[in-house]
Amino acid sequence: QVQLQESGPGLVKPSQTLSLTCTVSGESITTAGYYFSWIRQAPGKGLEYIGHIGWSANTYVSPSLASRTSISRDTSKNQFTLHLTSVTPEDTAVYFCVRNLGWWGQGTQVTVSS
To answer: Which residues of the chain have a pLDDT value below 70?
Structure first.
């Protein structure tokens, strides 16, 4: 059974880069057909799809965040990482890593504040 666990800083200062890592256990991130997404939910708002990385390392990022976002992976650690540059308080949210939109991590709170 796949399990996903987010990790990263809970507090980031404006203009800094946010890096969040998702550690996947129970199956390989290179398994054909799988893609691993980042989704966030800001306070009082709905879910926002950030982007994903597929089993072949192909990536997609939402156009609204593309200028500030990249997603990478480390197959040796079975992890994938979100990098979000130039953060602002509007990036404050709970960030989730998700597999094929069906298996979710528990989420991690990120607050952007000076």
So the answer is: none
